UniProtKB/TrEMBL annotation:
Coiled coil: none
UniProt membrane topology term: Multi-pass membrane protein
Organism: Furfurilactobacillus curtus
Domain of life from the UniProt record: Bacteria
Protein name: Phage infection protein
Sequence intervals crossing the membrane: 12-31, 225-246, 267-288, 294-313, 320-342, 384-404
Amino acid sequence: MFDVIRSKRYWLALLLVGAIIGIVSFALIGIRNSVKVKQIPVALVNEDKGILSNKIESKLRKKFNGKDSKIKWVSPQKDGFNDQKYYGAFIIRSGFSKELQQQNESLKAQIISQKLTTLQKKEELPDSAKSQLLQAKFVTQKPVHPAQIKISINQGMNAQVSQLLSQALPQIANTLSSRISAQQQSVLSKNKINLSAKSWDLVSTPISVSTHESNKIEKNTIGGAAPMLLVALAWFSALIPSLILWREHTKRSASKFLNATTITSQLITGLVASILSATIGFLFANVFNLTIPNPINFIGLMFISIFVFYLIITCALDWFGFFVYPLVLVVWFLAIAVISYAPEALDPLYRKGIYSWVPMRFSMQTLTNTLYFHNGSSTTMSSLLVLLIIGFVAAILMYSSGYLKHYLFTVRPHRKINN
């Protein structure tokens, strides 16, 4: 009855179950509970360079200067949006200080005009003040406009962060507008000045805020989740063929160690399977109306991702056999848990320990760019280069597996026996 409990395999199985639960919890629960949006790069652009705009820029930099601040102001760069240097931009438009100054001058003129007009009606206006009244009326008739702040959101970089910034950045601008409005209303209240509806609208909203989205997440791209789901599709497109082809080549191999001819066959059959999988993936993406701006780029990038994943998994199988397959699945769980988040939102443990090295993130980067960054991004070539290097290294290790294993398990022991 207690033979099973006394068995080492029983306790080993329990240990394995505990390890799997720990790893899955680490990947699926720990990451989500540690996600904290902070230090999101946003370009602070002052196109005005006036006195008032410089003061506002200085205050904004001081306010969002802490390590736990959600926003991290960075300097604007050429092609900063396309090259994904920052998630958004807070732009103080040219003429900002001038517009606020004109608002203040118009407000003072209206106060002077109404007070002197009241005296004029009572016939108490001194002759020396008549020119001042005329000047004040002249100033009030000049057109006055709100100061301009533009918010740009680099939507394609990350849907979640873009949504957060779409709320946070306009709120910062609106808060500035409300403070200026409160100051103006306080002056009006103290002087008991009545304004027209048009003038009151300007006092209520002295700063106009406009929001613009760059590298838009297109319709029918699953709300920006398409790149991550396509990476999942690419991974599973490699996961199944790699195992099937590895077993077929292992069975057909005359030796228990794979030779160069067998490895070459693995590469060729995997290449064909990857091309077929990428094409089928594109066809199904069309069936489900996924918006794909450039089909050729899409198929090419999917093929590269699938083939590189195939090489990684097959390399692991060639070296360690089927026992490594659960580890491959664990790596996938860890990768899919982190690549859905912006790296800035991840805890350093997950960002440096997982996100920085999993190949899936480079695949996701290339797919994100082809779906949303139509003006081109330098990150495409860099991510593609990393994928190709990973694939090349995996292929070299595949070829070396047979020779090294043959040496370690056959040649070397035989030499020891002879000696």
